[in-house]
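[step 3/7] fold_predict: job queued, chain A
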Amino acid sequence: MTGPVLILGGRSDMGLAIAHRFAAAGHPVQLAARHAQSLSADANDIHVRHNVAVTLHEFDALAVDSHAAFVKSLPVLPEVAVCAVGTMGEQAASERDVAAAIAVMRSNYEGPASILAHLANAFEARGSGTLIGISSVAGERGRATNYIYGSAKAGFTAFLSGLRNRLARKGVHVMTVLPGFVATKMVAGMDLPQKLTAETREVGEAVFNGVSRQRNVIYVKPVWRLVMGVIKNIPEPMFKKMKI
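[step 4/7] structure written:
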């Protein structure tokens, strides 16, 4: 029997897609989110479709003082933990309201890094497991159109890189996921380029395959590696004149 998979941010479209993909391979699923009991229909759907056990766990990414207790409360320490926590926010609102900016930064960096830090210690003590963080290509270069969100994701990407380096000889693997645009509720109404936009099932498949192959960093759509390679290498004097 395969080990359980913990989905932090189990209400998110990407989190649920990842849960379904691992469940299809026989993994029991632990869905963690605020107001977790409201996910009972999603839990039942996963159970019925894939014939695996699904449990619900109350979790608040921003309540960092509760994270140690949350990990200890899990009935079984998962084999794989996926952090799909995050919110994009609105750049214009974050520019006007520093409190709104801080909420975006905490949701995309502080909370995810905190819970993965606690899980990392538990996985290291056990000597096995895989930790996965859903970061973003937005963290690869600060851009005027989303630098609040992007700065938090940049921090999270760096955190995951350092964690991977720390745990490389401890039996624990850390994988960074850079999805690019994904067709979820978070971007509903946005005019996204089709060739650069992934479906949530593609995210689930990419994450599952990445774990199977012990990948370190994955772009859900490989074209994003090229796109961000170009953006990262635009000279700063030219970049300052652009709005992308």
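[step 5/7] annotate
Residues 175 and 216 are 5 Å apart (CA to CA).
The two ends are 47 Å apart (CA to CA).
exit 0
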